[in-house]
Amino acid sequence: MAEKKRYGMLEMDDAQRKNLEKALAKKPLHHVNPEIKEMVLAQRKGMPRIIDIHTHPYTKIGWRSLGKFRVHLEKYLYKRTDITPEQITDMAPTDDEWVAPFKELGVAVMPCGWDAETTMAPGDPLYRGNTNDDIAAMRDKYPDTVITGWGSVDPWKNWKALEEVIRCYKDLKLIGIKFQQVGQAFHVNNKQFYPLWDLCQELGMPIQLHSGFTGLASGAPGGWGTKIKYTMQLIPDIDDISADFPNLKIIMLHCSDGRDEDAVLLCRHKGNIYRELSGIQPDYIPEAAPHTFYELNRRQRDKYMFGSEFNLFPLDGILWRHMQLPYREGILEGMFWKNTINILGEEMERVGINLKEWRVNLTEV
Ligand SMILES: [Zn+2]
Questions:
Q1: Start-to-end Cα distance in the chain
Q2: What is the DSSP string of 208-239?
Q3: How far, in Å, is the centroid of ligand 1 from the Cα of 18?
Q4: Does residue 39 lie in a domain region?
Q5: What domain range is 158 assigned to?
Q6: What is the pLDDT, as a whole number, of residue 365?
Q7: DSSP character string of 25-67
């Protein structure tokens, strides 16, 4: 028998690992590899479900929330050069298929909506937002797995955006609001948008903000008019609003590619800033974001939550790769659910999630 090696918390021999890498690259993103599933579940035995705070329902209809940008992403992320919108629809999962991997792998999930109508819809017949009603409907259809969701509002819709935040809070009972500043083309510290932060703070709605580089339109001529300046200036953009709205919980998304050092400094300085690390294959994190990886294993260990960016990335592959990283003892478990309960527990209860399965373990572990 070939010799097994240790990769983080997993043990595999070289050939097995290579074969699984190959299987991951070939399969549809929403299918679960049975061997990987077995490894993941063996590690999770006796532990509560993982909580995934950042995903997109790019289903047969939902993928169109990125419109033509989604077609381009096929090229950027998967090297598929001449794919058509019809083929994307064919490959995309139905709602049932989208939810299945979370159920299989023991993950409770919070999908994000998408509204960038003002900036992304004009001239793009493919565009169709992922509405907040869509997100609430997924939760209502799969309450055991989709525990809540993040609304999205288009900041350029001014008072209508404010009304929509209130609707997300009151009527739809979503946990918070997600923004993607490159797609939505705005600086968060532009005073014009301060009423949004004021309202979210007042309601106790946490926000998710994109941070660092984005794959959106990456490699297209002129990035098809999109600008990464909206997410590359963590300081001052996010520094300003985190200081001006100290009771607003801000979750910086992704590993802040290109702004690693600023991200850990900001996270260290501002008590109301938290992070998640989706949008990159986890095995690249230690090199792509070395300050982040260092800090999350040490003094910022309580500030990181888990997000998968499913279904641009495969859920089984993301979990399997996290488990192979050299995290210090207890760090991954913290990220998988404990930190999320500590950071967002109050808000989760507000939207009606029963925290029992996590709370019980919080005291025991
Ligand atoms: Zn995302």
A1: 36
A2: EEE-S---TTTTSGGGGG--THHHH-IIIIIH
A3: 28
A4: no
A5: 48-364
A6: 46
A7: HHS-TTS--HHHHHHHHHHHTTSPPEEEEEE----TTGGGGGT
Q: Ligand 1 mean position to 309 CA, how many Å?
A: 5
Q: Supply the CATH number for residue 193's domain.
A: 3.20.20.140
54 CA from centroid of ligand 1 (Å): 6
Residues of the chain with pLDDT under 70: 1, 363-365
CA of 55 to the centre of ligand 1 (A): 6
Q: How far is the CA of 312 from the centre of ligand 1 (A)?
A: 8
Q: Is residue 338 part of a domain?
A: yes
SS3 101: helix
Residue 1 lies in a domain: no
Question: For residue 26, how far is its CA from the centre of ligand 1 (angstroms)?
Answer: 22
Whether residue 185 is contained in a domain is answered as yes
- Nearest-5° angle of CA 285, CA 287, CA 288? 65
The SS3 of residue 277 is coil
pLDDT of residue 364: 54
Q: Cα torsion for 297, 303, 309, 314, to the nearest 10°? A: 40
Distance 209 CA to ligand 1 centre (A): 10
Query: Using CA atoms, how far apart are residues 91 and 71, in angstroms rounded to an integer?
Result: 12
Both tokens of residue 47? 């532990």
Number of structural domains in the chain? 1
